[in-house]
Amino acid sequence: MTGANGTGKSSLYRALRLLADSARNGAVSALAREGGLPSTLWAGPETIGKAVRAGEHPVQGTVRRGPVSLRLGFAGDDFGYAVDFGLPQPSTSAFALDPEIKREAVWAGPVLRPSSLLAERSGTALRIRDGGSWLSVHDAVATFDSMLSEYTDPRRAPELLTVRERIRSWRFYDHLRTDADAPARRPRIGTRTPVLAHDGADLAAALQTIREIGDRSALAAAVDAAFPGSELEIDAESGRFVLRLRQPGLLRPLGTAELSDGTLRYLLWVAALLTPRPPALLVLNEPETSLHPDVLRPLAGLILAGAARTQVVVVTHSRALVNALEHDAHELTTIELVKDLGETRIAGQGRFDQPAWHWPKR
After folding, report:
1. End-to-end CA distance of the chain
2. What is the pTM of this model?
3. Residue 157 and residue 189 in one domain
4. Which of 10, 69, 80, 265 has its CA at 20 to 30 Å from residue 128's CA atom?
5. Which residues are paired to 74 by β-bridges?
6. What is the C-alpha to C-alpha distance for residues 351 and 74, in angstroms, rounded to an integer?
7. CA-to-CA distance for 246 and 360, rounded, in angstroms?
8. Strand, helix or coil at 162?
């Protein structure tokens, strides 16, 4: 996923994170951190006419006709999920600004249809398909809770559990710190770490875990590809893991406190992408940050190695990284975002190129 600044790449990334938060019942608090529901709403007019698009009239505000709504969803070959957040009913509660979940739906296949619907919630009520009929559960979930996180019935609603666990496995990396005080630069008590922490604090333990139960040869090859002739050394001193990088021509290995920001960041991507426990979806936000152009080709190889085991979404500004991925990938979808009168659109996508999609109706 690429595009100029302000085209909507960060918005797409945050939308995916909000979807993941829904499965953990943290979407309402995540929305609050984003500035509340109003901050997520489209800032332009509800409709943009042909005359405006043709440049014959300026963009002007219009009266909103539809309900205030933030709708998020995704679909795959087997299941799809969508959620609709809206404004709460007038209340004297101290939490009167919290958005409510108006609708949720889980369905079979890539497109929501009445025949493919498996479970849906409207307000606090829940309906679950039970063979050829429907099972209704009243007051099953609160208005601020997701049915994915709060309703568990493996016999009657196994699809909800499947979708929930799939979304919960999604992994996001966008705050891998490499500054002087970064957690990854400090020795830490380590345990087996098949999944790198979001801030990279357990880097040494994660790399050692790859050595022991992951692809040890791929780890060595990834380090050598970026830093020819270099090798990792990981010491466990009284349970504290210490990472060092031995490089040609140096009499001693360099500790993480001595590594450059780019070197440390690349090692963090190695740990994230060679994880022995791949998620259902791995999302990387601007992985090229702090990296020298010569390291982008090895990074592309790392990303493709990760994509061989799971779906990887890369949000990037780097045309060099995109070119390297396109050169080496057997299967790659490149999406370029553009702005059209403030709207985020996909470059080259016409009206009839858009995939089929239907939102749950309120």
Report:
1. 31
2. 0.89
3. no
4. 69
5. 81
6. 20
7. 56
8. helix
Residues 6+ apart with CB under 8 A from 63: 46
How many folded domains does the chain comprise?
A: 2
Same domain flag for 41 and 27: yes
3-state SS, residue 91: coil
Same domain, 13 and 149: yes
CB 313 within 8 A of CB 284: yes
Mean pLDDT in each 10-residue stretch from start to end of the chain (362 residues)?
Answer: 90 90 86 82 74 68 77 94 90 84 94 94 92 89 90 89 94 91 92 94 96 96 96 89 94 94 96 96 94 94 94 93 90 90 86 89 88
Nearest to 267 by CA among 291, 285, 297, 238: 291
CA atoms 268, 272, 273, 276: torsion sign: positive
Contacts 24+ apart (CB under 8 A), 88-91: 88/143
Q: Which two tokens stand for residue 190?
A: 């380590």
The one-letter amino acid code at 186 reads R
| Residue whose tokens read 């050692």 | 208
